[in-house]
Structure to design on (476 residues):
C-alpha cells in the first residue's frame, strides 16, 4: 500500500519509528494529487510550498527526539469555506474568488498547532449549498470510485480528496448532511459533531443554527483523533458549548454488549434503495450478533424534516449572504449607482443554487408569509427535536441509512432541485435536532459503489457513536 492510502494513525506510527519522514509522506500525497487531480478535481487551491516547508519542520522535530502530536506531519485538506489567513477562502463562489481572510478559523488554528500538513483548500458546492459539488463556481468534483458520478456534497472536495488518496484526512462542514452524505458516496467515515461541540468561528456561515464542522477520515480511529484535535469551547463562538471534551480515542473499544440501538421505521420506506435497506438491516443483524439489542422505534415527524429544513436553512442563508454586496470585500461589478452595482454584483457572481435559496429564504421571511412558513417551520423543528428526545429515553443510538441511494451520475439531478433536496432526507433531521451523527461504510452495491450507514447519538455523546462505529468496523 502506498503512503497516501494509509490511515493517519498508521502513518503516525511510521513517523515516530522513523520508518518514513514527513517530507517523504507529503511528497507521496502530492504525487498522487499530480496524478489524480485533473480527473477528480478535489481542490480549489493547493498550498504545496507551505506544506513542504512545514514537513521539513516536523522532520527536524523528530530528528531531535521530540514527541509529535497524533496528527503532526499528516497531510490534510480543508474545506474552502473555512477561513485560512493568507490563503484564499472562496466558498467555491465567484463573489469570493480572490478573497484572502485576515484571520484563521479556530479549527484551522488547532490543526496548525498540531503541525498537521495542510495541502490545500477543497472544492464544495457554492457556500455549501448543494448535495453533489456540481454547484461549485469553479468546477465539478468527481467521485474517485466512478469518475462519471458525483462525490456528494457539499463537502465533496474534502471527501473525494480522502477517498482518492489526495489527503489523509479532511475537514468538512455539515448543515444538512454535507459531511455524512458525501462520506457515504465516497466510502469513507464522516462525522457531524453535536452542534456547538466544534467552534464555528471562521466558518463562512450558511445557516448558523445548523452548521457544524467535522472530520472526514479513512477509519473510525482517525475520526476520533481529528475530533480530539478540533473540539473544545471557544470564546470567539457564542454557540460553542462549555462541555468538557473527553479523549475520544478511549471510546475505541470493540464492545456493544447491552447497547440498545433503535431502527426508526420512517427511514425504511418507499424511496430508499433496496440494496441500501438490505445493507443497513445487515448492519443491524451484525450489531445484534455482537450483543446489542435492536429495537424498532418511531420518529413520527421525520416526513416534515425536508420541508422544515428548506425553510429554516434558506431563511438563515438569505440573512447571512446579505453581506456580499460588492461594497466591503469580495467581487464588485460596477453600475450607474449603488443599487445597480449591488444588483449587478449579486446577479453575476452568485450561482443559480445560491440565488434560489436566497429567494426562498427571503420569501419565507417576508411580511405576510413569516408566520405561515418560517415560524411554523421553527415549531415543527421543536417537534422533530422532541421525537429524538423521546426515542433516546428507550435507546442509546439510532441506526439509519445515510443516503436513499448510492452516488448518482453527474448531471442526473441538476435540472430537478426538489429531487436533489431529497438526497438529504436521512441526514437533515440530525442537524435540525443539533445531534451528533456518523456515516460509516457498510459494503458496496452491485455497481461497486459504496454504501454507508448512519449512527445518531444523544447530544454530546460522540463517545457512544464512535464506540459502536469502531465495533462494527473491527468486526469485519
Amino acid at each position: 500500500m502506498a503512503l497516501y492510502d494509509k490511515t493517519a494513525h498508521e502513518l503516525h506510527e511510521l513517523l515516530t519509528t522513523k520508518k518514513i519522514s514527513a517530507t517523504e509522506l507529503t511528497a507521496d500525497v502530492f504525487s498522487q494529487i499530480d496524478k489524480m487531480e485533473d480527473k477528480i478535481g478535489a481542490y480549489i487551491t493547493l498550498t504545496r510550498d507551505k506544506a513542504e516547508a512545514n514537513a521539513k519542520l516536523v522532520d527536524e522535530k523528530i530528528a531531535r527526539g521530540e514527541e509529535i502530536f497524533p496528527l503532526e506531519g499528516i497531510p490534510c485538506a480543508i474545506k474552502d469555506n473555512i477561513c485560512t489567513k493568507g490563503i484564499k477562502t472562496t466558498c467555491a463562489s465567484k463573489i469570493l474568488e480572490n478573497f484572502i481572510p485576515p484571520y484563521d478559523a479556530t479549527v484551522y488554528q488547532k490543526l496548525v498547532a498540531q503541525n498537521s500538513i495542510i495541502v490545500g483548500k477543497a472544492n464544495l458546492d457554492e457556500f455549501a449549498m448543494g448535495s453533489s459539488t456540481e454547484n461549485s463556481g469553479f468546477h465539478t468534483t468527481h467521485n474517485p470510485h466512478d469518475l462519471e458520478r458525483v462525490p456528494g456534497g457539499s463537502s465533496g472536495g474534502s471527501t473525494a480528496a480522502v477517498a482518492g488518496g489526495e489527503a489523509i484526512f479532511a475537514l468538512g462542514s455539515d448543515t444538512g448532511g454535507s459531511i455524512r452524505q458525501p462520506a457515504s458516496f465516497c466510502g469513507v467515515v464522516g462525522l457531524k459533531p453535536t452542534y456547538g461541540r466544534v467552534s464555528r468561528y471562521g466558518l463562512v456561515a450558511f445557516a448558523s443554527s445548523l452548521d457544524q464542522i467535522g472530520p472526514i477520515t479513512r477509519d473510525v480511529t482517525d475520526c476520533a483523533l481529528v475530533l480530539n484535535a478540533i473540539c473544545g469551547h471557544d470564546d470567539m463562538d457564542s454557540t460553542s458549548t462549555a462541555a468538557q471534551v473527553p479523549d475520544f480515542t478511549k471510546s475505541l473499544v470493540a464492545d456493544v454488549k447491552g447497547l440498545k440501538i433503535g431502527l426508526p421505521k420512517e427511514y425504511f420506506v418507499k424511496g430508499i434503495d433496496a440494496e441500501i435497506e438490505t445493507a443497513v438491516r445487515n448492519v443491524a443483524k451484525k450489531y445484534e450478533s455482537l450483543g446489542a439489542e435492536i429495537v424498532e422505534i418511531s420518529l413520527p415527524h421525520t416526513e416534515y424534516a425536508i420541508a422544515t429544513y428548506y425553510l429554516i436553512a434558506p431563511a438563515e442563508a438569505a440573512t447571512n449572504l446579505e453581506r456580499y454586496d460588492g461594497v466591503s470585500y469580495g467581487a464588485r461589478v460596477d453600475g450607474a449607482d449603488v443599487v445597480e452595482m449591488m444588483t449587478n454584483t449579486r446577479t453575476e457572481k452568485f450561482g443559480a443554487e445560491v440565488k434560489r435559496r436566497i429567494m426562498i429564504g427571503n420569501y419565507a421571511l417576508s411580511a405576510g408569509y413569516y408566520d405561515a412558513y418560517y415560524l411554523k417551520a421553527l415549531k415543527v423543528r421543536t417537534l422533530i427535536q422532541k421525537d429524538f428526545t423521546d426515542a433516546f429515553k428507550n435507546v442509546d443510538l439510532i441506526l439509519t441509512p445515510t443516503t436513499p441511494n448510492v452516488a448518482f451520475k453527474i448531471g442526473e439531478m441538476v435540472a430537478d432541485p426538489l429531487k436533489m433536496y431529497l438526497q438529504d432526507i436521512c441526514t437533515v433531521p440530525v442537524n435540525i435536532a443539533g445531534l451528533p451523527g456518523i456515516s460509516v461504510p457498510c459494503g458496496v452495491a452491485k455497481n461497486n459503489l459504496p454504501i454507508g450507514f448512519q449512527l445518531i447519538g444523544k447530544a454530546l455523546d460522540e463517545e457512544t457513536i464512535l464506540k459502536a462505529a469502531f465495533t462494527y468496523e473491527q468486526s469485519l
The longest strand covers residues 437-444. The longest helix spans residues 370-391.
